[in-house]
Amino acid sequence: MKISSVGEYGKQLTRLGAVNCFLVLEDDGYTLIDGNLKGTEDEILRAAGDVPIRRILLTHPHVDHVGSVDALMARVAGLKLLASERSIPILQVPPDLSLRPGEVGPIRGGTPGIATKVSQTVAEGDRLGSLLVIDTPGHIHGHQAFLDERDGTLYAGDEFGSLGKFNITGFMPWWFPLKAFSNRDQAKDTARKLQGYPVQRVACGHGRVLEGGRELVQGAIDRAKG
Ligand SMILES: [Zn+2]
User: Fold this and answer.
1) Which of 36, 117, 137, 217 would suit a FRET pair with 83, their CA atoms being 20 to 30 Å apart?
2) Where is the Metallo-beta-lactamase domain (predicted)?
């Protein structure tokens, strides 16, 4: 597990050189963004140290973002799980992958579901401590990103990836394992939407944290062809 700092308030935890989750410091302790792979709970707890983890906030229900959620819930008293309303059926065991009216599908990528029930849903415009919730559909329905308004860090989940070039995940090279997406056009629209926010750096689910805002995201939009 590699640990590095993100902006002024975040810690990036990277497993196997490719799978990230983030601890974001708030007045009452940490918010953990995503649950990484199965078996990461000890390392997440060690990284938090004496600071309590108060809540897990999910960008989306893919397997590499929810793997240690159940184990953490069992270990940490009072821990809450927060996710979008649209993620709830996809988080069930077995997952309900049916589409809602107007959605393009199918829903792709590993979605094993988890035993933990969502304690609170979060929606566009909500504020959780310092994090502003932004609906960012495309990679999967119900995907959300979180902007730390203190330092402009955008926790973007899998809307973008930065293993190699910074790209919208639906437009990664053909060999890239995270190409799984539900709606590429929607992911591109989401990137354009994110241009309306004061982003200073982007922290993705996979790859390094990149400094930059508008130009960085514009580069990903420009590379998203076809
Ligand atoms: Zn994903």
Assistant:
1) 217
2) 18-206
Note the pLDDT of residue 226: 64
- pLDDT the model gives residue 169: 85
Q: In terms of Cα–Cα distance, which of 82, 74, 89 is closest to 34? A: 82
What distance in Å separates the CA atoms of residue 82 and residue 85, rounded to the nearest whole number? 9
Structural domain harbouring 97:
2-223
- Quote the ligand 1 centre to 161 CA distance (angstroms): 10
What's the rounded Cα separation, in Å, for the pair 5 and 26?
A: 15
For 114, the 3-state DSSP assignment is coil
Domain containing residue 63: CATH number:
3.60.15.10
Q: How far is the CA of 105 from the centre of ligand 1 (A)?
A: 15
Q: How far is the CA of 136 from the centre of ligand 1 (A)?
A: 12
User: Which portions of the chain are predicted below pLDDT 70?
Assistant: 172-180, 226
How many structural domains compose the chain? 1
Please tell me the number of Cα atoms within 13 Å of 39 on its side-chain side. 3
d(CA 158, ligand 1 centre) in Å: 5
Residue 137: is it exposed, middle or buried by C-beta count within 10 angstroms (0-12/13-18/19+)?
buried
pLDDT for 175: 60
- Give the pLDDT score at 184: 87
pLDDT attached to residue 170: 80
